[in-house]
Amino acid sequence: MKHIAIGILGAGALGLMASAASATTLDDVKAKGFLQCGTNTGLAGFAAPDDKGEWKGIDVDFCRAVAAAVFGDGTKVKFTPLSAKERFTALQSGEVDILSRNTTWTINRDTALGLNFVGVTYYDGQGFMINAKKLPGVNSALQLSGAAVCVQSGTTTELNLADYFKANKMEYNPVVFEKLEEVNAAYDAGRCDVYTTDQSGLYGIRLTLSSPADHVVLPEIISKEPLGPAVRQGDDQWYHIVKWTYFALLQAEELGITQANVEEMKTSDNPEIKRVLGQEAETKIGTDLGVSNDWVVNIVKAVGNYGEMFERNVGTGSPLKIARGINALWTKGGLQYAPPIR
Amino acid sequence: MQEHDTAWVRTEMALAQQAPAGVRGPIAWVRKNLVGSVGDVILTVLGIALVVMILPPIINWAFIDAVWTGPDRSVCATIAQGGTQPDGWSGACWAFVNAKFGQFMFGRYPIEERWRPILVAILFVALLVPLLIPRVPRKGLNAILLFLVLPIVAFVLLVGGMFGLPHVETQLWGGLLVTLSLAFVGIAVSLPFGIVLALGRRSKMPIVKMLCVIFIEFVRGIPLITVLFFASVMLPLFLPPGVSFDKFLRALIGFSLFAAAYMAEVVRGGLQAIPKGQYEGADSLGLGYWQKMNLIVLPQALKLVIPGIVNTFIGMLKDTSLVIIISMFDLLGVVKQNFSDPNWATPQTTKSGLIFAAFVFWLLCYGMSRYSMYTERRLDTGHKR
């Protein structure tokens, strides 16, 4: 039985799933009057409180986008900060309607845990940051043979690191710590030459180093960490709403619809833009989905398009300054691609 | 005329004189304590060297070079780090604490509603201080107000949803508000429960005794983290869907029961220290069980275990930080959460935030410990050594 493999936690959750999904999630959310969104307890660029205690980040903005699609109001969302251990239970037990918490999409989570991932809002992967002063001239991870590598113990990061060096027949000295803060401190103090963790994390860590200019994030990504929001299995309508909210964000960027120009765009002559923004006569795209026809207008008004969301939270508009890279649109050589909205 | 065999006799008492300069005053103190022997000299020199080495950099970092206000990370970072400070600068980033102070106190409690926890805090202090000062009269009324009326008022004010106050979910609570409400409820519930459990464990009635022993041993046998984790992660899976009760309430209950079990054992220690003669004396006066306990045994037993009780209180206050594993944010949790704000990420942020949290915890714990020592001295009747 699969249940045995999942463990008691998952099995108990699956048992409850059937009854939890009796009313549709959309009806529940509308009856409540707000969207309950599970987020990280604090991760720079994805979900972090600002000075006023407002959540900022890609993951929380995605929830605001879904709220905008459902209610026409991006503020009708409440956030539940979840630890890594709690996150799946919270979604399964119905405590949250959507889990937008930098969660890696894997087959096990998609099938056995009873979740449905809607897409990849951020393509992440394990990367390396090096101390350029100690390793001059290194511009590729393949030149790291013999380096001392700082890594957090008991993570998949540690295993990926071992795999990568073994596969490339290189030697390395692992410098292993239990806590993230310890790894940061050790790296900053120069106890190792290389720091490895998810690439998005490396940029956040660089901000806390005493001389960030000496540290370079190498281009190689040695593991796939597609991060995306997930919903409960067994409610296709809700799954579609969340999934197409994600695609709408991408489509808006592709068509050049921004938070600033969305009102003008409504009167555009471009049939594709008119269709996406629900301005075509007798359009049923929105209502078929279960939301209003101007859902894309609401989404873009609330959080902007995907590109704006990215730049504001992790890109050039934020202290993290992460390059778009593979998170660029497919038209610009990236992986972000939305099926047509028609 | 009086005749003397001796040449001179002093007829009045000599005035007491000061001890010789060599054994009094600061110089003598230094001689005796700092340079009394070769070993002392070495230790003194080492000690002074240590202070000279450590203190100026700390004062420099924490006060002189510190940044007190500022809009974002740029004020706490050097130019190389993307800020405005000169290269090589290192100082505390109190600007971070300043900008996040509201959050450190109340978590994400809505800003326009923050007068409510502030009002509760004022009421709490106004009721607690007179209770702690022995001279102030009406202790009974004061205690009833603090332990029975205040929790109800605080609940209405903090949670809201009635009397025209907007509802504020406990999800939004955080910071010192969570730390203190958990600790206060834990303390207020654990002491009476603990006394009842301790008496139950020493009871002659087998069922009462067994129940108390099972409860105490079971709760003490599992870590607090397990209790909290179970309450937050496992409980929702067993409840019917749609039925969920507040996570904060779950933590509060788990926390109080846990503290009660520990308190019970502390109180039992006190009960065991009371000589059998006291019990027999009470019996021979014809006192019933509760009279005996209330008038004779407990007043003596509790006085004996004040250090143990306060020890448990202080431990509880610090244990509140464990609620972070169920994603509730006490003072330390909120401070750490705000480290993730990229607008404040600098090499100084982490140190400054943690030092602030440590300082607040130290204030609270040290205050409790000093007050308990004062109470011990005040109640010290006949056990002086």
SS class of chain B: mainly alpha
Q: DSSP helix count of chain A?
A: 15
CATH topology heading of the domain at 178-328 in chain B? MetI-like fold
DSSP, total strands of chain A:
13
Tally the beta strands of chain B: 0
Sheet-strand content of chain A, in percent, reads 15-25%
Strand content of chain B: under 5%
CATH topology of the largest domain in chain A: D-Maltodextrin-Binding Protein, domain 2
Helices and strands of chain A, in order, run as HHHEEEHEHEHEEEEHEHEHEEHHHHHH
Please write the string of helix (H) and strand (E) elements of chain B.
Answer: HHHHHHHHHHHHHHH
Q: Give the integer mean of the pLDDT values of chain B.
A: 87
Structure explained in plain terms:
The complex is a heterodimer of chains A (342) and B (385). With 342 residues, chain A is of the alpha/beta class. Chain A is 38% helix and 18% strand. In chain A, the strands form three sheets. In chain A, strands 1, 4, 5, 6, 7 and 13 form a six-stranded mixed β-sheet that branches. In chain A, helix 7 links the parallel strand 9 and strand 10. The two termini of chain A are 42 Å apart. Chain B has 15 helices and no strands. By secondary structure, chain B is mainly alpha-helical. The longest helix of chain B is centred in the C-terminal third of the chain and has 30 residues. The two termini of chain B are 57 Å apart. The interface between A and B is large, with 46 and 43 residues.
What descriptors fit this protein?
heterodimer, A: 342 residues, alpha/beta, D-Maltodextrin-Binding Protein, domain 2, 13 strands, globular, disordered N terminus, B: 385 residues, mainly alpha
